[in-house]
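Weekly modeling sync, notes
Attendees: S.R. (lead), two postdocs, one rotation student

Agenda item 3: backlog of single-chain predictions. S.R. asked that every request posted to the team notebook include the full sequence so nobody has to chase files. The rotation student volunteered to paste the first one in as an example of the format we agreed on. Action items at the bottom.

Example entry:
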Amino acid sequence: MNTKRKVSMACKFLGKDLKSPLVLPAGVLGMTASSLLRVVECGAGMVTTKSFSLKPREGHKGPVIIEFKAGILNSMGISNPGITEGLQEIELFKEKSDTPLIVSVFGLNLNEFVELTNIVNDSRADFIELNLSCPNVFDEVTPFFTSIENMVKIVEAVKGISKKPVIVKLPPGNRIREIVQELEKVKVDAVSLINTLPGMVIDIKFAKPVLTNKFGGISGPAIKPLAIKLVYEVKEVTNLPTIGIGGVLTGEDAIEMMMAGAECVGIGAGIYYRGIEIFKKVNRGIKKFMRQNGYTNLGQIIGKAHNA
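Predicted structure, as returned to the notebook:
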């Protein structure tokens, strides 16, 4: 074992240079320039904003988050200040950092996604991510991921006008291969997965759901095995660049996600468990694993499980 072996954490995503494969995914700390900059300082190679809508959204009434034995359940309801204010924060971020930035957007229909894309076109964001898989808006709209046809129509429309590479945030589900193959036909540039799983926690003393919205999205360690499986399945049928998200807390978790096929690895709920310094900790863990196991660059790791 050579503990002094020189290893490189640098990688590329859709042509952009990243100092680390670690990414802040949508929905976590991505509301202000200062929070995004802090994540970069802690070691993230790329950051994603919260999902912005055309108009400000208050989200659901509290309580909106609860920890359970194997993870976290949240029902934020995509609270955000709206795309106009959100892009102002992106400009502030870009004035101080050249770190690649993904702006996530959420619309209630195809026309809203098109309008959001036109607005994002004039921003300094590097990529646009379409949040087509949020499980916390069942009361407003039937989730787009329930219909592959609807997902394809939205992506096709956005690709027709977007000046930015388009990423789609995918849901967990048995049809992941079919979804990816259909989106690839309409020229999606990359995918991120997985979004949270729908779930519920009941307070048995009061005999009622803990969350005011009743249902929420499950994240954290509980979903990692599923996330690994679905990232692996995506890489079985496509070479699309992939951001793997779900339950990553350690360097070993990140290595596992990359061996499944992810070029980049999202850390969201991990911030809850290990603090914002988790990016530094996971980066150190990745480097340690690489030195101990004879790897010098991430390209030797990404997708390696497919060769087993």
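Discussion: group reviewed the output briefly. The chain has one domain: 11-307.
Action items: rotation student to repeat for the remaining queue; S.R. to check formatting next week.
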